[in-house]
Amino acid sequence: MRELSRGSALTALRVEDMNSRGEGIARLDGGFVLFLPGALPGETVHVRIAEVKKQYAVGDVTGLDEAHPSRVTPCCPWFARCGGCQLQHASEPLQLELKRNLALQAMRRIGHLASEEDVPECRKSPLALHYRNKAAFPVVRGRGALRTGFYRRGSHEVVPVDRCPVLDETLEALYGTLRDLLPQAPFDGYDEKTHRGHLRHLVLRRGTRSGCLAAILVCRTRPDARQEAWIRRVLTPALRELDEEARVAVHVNDRRGNVIWGGDTLSYAGGERFIEGLGDRLFSFDLTSFSQVNTLQAEQLYAHVAEEVQALEGRRILELYAGAGTLTAFLADRAETVTAVEEWTRSVENGRENMRALGLDNVLFTAADAGAFLRDALPGGFDTVVLDPPRGGCDEEVVRNLLRLAPRNLVYVSCKPATLFRDLALLTQGGFRFLRLRLFDMFPQTAHVECVATLRRP
Asked: Under a CB-based contact definition with an 8 Å cutoff, are residues 134 and 451 in contact?
């Protein structure tokens, strides 16, 4: 293999596959791996090396000899610079095929489970564009004025954008309005390296079913009098033109780094609660609480999980990582009892309020870490466990205590196939039998795929 260095040019490389970041994969003689953002499997490309590591290199595609027949023109002018989307250059059917293949690879390589026939097609989203009901825009100071956008792929450099085609259309219009207002705002942009500056993020939310609209300024310190005056006289009227009941708030987070939430929320208009509908129900939760960003696809996902639970005939349900109770309500319809466990206290309070408002008296919300709850739980107390952990999956304690608890059924929801099948490998070794997998395209235009795996003990 020739010596590679930054700037090296390579021609006629065949792209073999795609990784979970949406990058094409090519291999040189000897198996040395090249990761190629923007390349699709099956294409023949020209490449200029951008980065060289001991085990791999990253290259920029400079030309196409042979394009994939399903390659399309990206709908966003910032695609390939902004890091939000990875697959806008692939048609929707190709995106679904690529996501199915990601799950299949993880099942074979990590989970050592089943066969290709056990990985179904990925279920398409009702909307491929304008589906996101939430977005967080980092704010920095550049050239003397505040600017905002999204992080460049693989960095914390902000790419200024004036629109985003995966955003809800009302949010997209609102973002454009607020972006124009920010340069005159009496804030300093935040520098995460020095931990200086004031305004860190602009977070926008809109309920797909409810129409509820919210803007949250994430600040390092509480606003002073001049900043509060701008919020009331400029920011709030801009939102009220779109929704007269719009929520306007400041979230104070003095932690270092680029983590968004981490402190107290101050309401300036519309109250502290956000409303969203799923199915025929409305849910209320804190402005900072997690909810699925693709409401219409979340409805299909939750309905599937509830149907799985009903088919398994496990009537005593334990739900781990329950959030504010959106999936919980779907489960409660099919269960005798649901014990919903959530670590974040505010979400637990929201969940209890939602269950009361919906008249669901068979749900018990518990504030606890999943591992700690399982450590104290007695075997035989639950027929079915439903879990939807963060992208990192379950830690060893959770898996170990799930095996000790030995429920008859387990339904595992995951947004990362690698961690899902890592955990499933341990669970199947411990006595569970893999039954089936379902895939949902929760994040069109990205390389992410949502998975639901169903397991059962013989």
From this structure: no
Q: Do the domain assignments include residue 88?
A: no
CATH number of the domain within which 353 lies: 3.40.50.150
What is the gyration radius of the CA atoms in the chain, in angstroms? Answer: 23
Gap between the Cα atoms of 456 and 278, Å rounded: 28
Among residues 253, 286, 319, the one where a domain terminates is 286
345 and 322 fall within a common domain:
yes
- The C-alpha atoms of residue 18 and residue 414 are separated, in whole angstroms, by 20
Q: How confident is residue 114, by pLDDT bands cut at 50, 70 and 90?
A: low
Check whether residue 193 and residue 245 sit in a common domain.
yes
- What's the length of the chain? 458
334 with 247, same domain?
A: no
pLDDT digit string, tens, across residues 369-412: 999 999 999 898 999 999 999 999 999 999 999 999 999 999 99
d(CA 321, CA 300): 19
Residues noted as catalytic: 415
> Are the CB atoms for 134 and 205 separated by under 8 Å?
yes
| Six token digits for residue 80 | 């390939």
Report the domain count for the chain. 3
